[in-house]
């Protein structure tokens, strides 16, 4: 298991304990334990989650997608090593459990996370 800290714009919004990775896609998913700073981005994450679930592709979706992308989500190990998945860091929040996915982990990042 590897604990990751999630940062948008340098603020800690939570941690997640990853236990493994999909070997084919290189994606790792875990439950996000939000910190107090998560409240600052919650509405953007929830809007983005809702519009993705609706499979929207209109102006509203593109506007929310840009807002989500400008969060600049980053992942770091507890030792401070940056994790840079090629597909980015995705948080999904449908009003209950928050899920985080590291999309497209490289072999190097997999090694940092899981040894």
Q: What percentage of the residues does DSSP assign to strands (E)?
A: 25-35%
Low-confidence stretches: none
Please write the string of helix (H) and strand (E) elements: EEEHHEEEEH
What's the overall geometry?
globular
Structural class: alpha+beta
What is the helix content? Answer: 25-40%
**Overall structural domain count:** 1
The number of helical runs is 3
The total strand number stands at 7
Distance between the termini: 10 Å
Spatial sequence of strands, sheet with the most strands: 5-4-1-2-3-7-6
Mean pLDDT: 91
**Rg (C-alpha, Å):** 14 Å
How would a crystallographer describe the biggest sheet? 7 strands, antiparallel
Q: What oligomeric state do the depicted chains represent?
A: single chain
Task: State the main characteristics.
single chain; 115 residues; alpha+beta; seven-stranded antiparallel beta sheet; 3 helices; 7 strands; globular
Write the topology of this structure.
Elements: E1 2-8, E2 14-18, E3 28-34, H1 42-53, H2 59-69, E4 73-77, E5 82-83, E6 88-93, E7 98-103, H3 107-114
Antiparallel strand pairs: 1-2, 1-4, 2-3, 3-7, 4-5, 6-7
Helix pairs in contact: 1-2
Structure description:
The protein has a seven-stranded antiparallel sheet. With 115 residues, the protein is α+β, with helices and mostly antiparallel strands. The chain is globular and about 40 Å long. It has one domain. The protein is 27% helix and 33% strand.
């Amino acid at each position: 298991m590897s604990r990751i800290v999630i940062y948008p714009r340098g603020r800690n919004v939570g941690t997640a304990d990853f236990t493994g990775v999909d070997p084919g896609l290189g994606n790792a998913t875990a439950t996000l334990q939000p910190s107090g700073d998560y409240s600052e981005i919650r509405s953007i994450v929830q809007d983005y989650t809702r519009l993705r679930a609706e499979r929207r592709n209109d102006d509203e979706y593109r506007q929310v997608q840009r807002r989500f992308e400008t969060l600049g989500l980053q992942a770091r190990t507890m030792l401070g090593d940056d994790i840079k998945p090629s597909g980015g860091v995705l948080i999904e929040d449908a009003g209950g459990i928050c899920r985080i996915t590291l999309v497209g982990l490289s072999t190097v990042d997999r090694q940092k996370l899981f040894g």
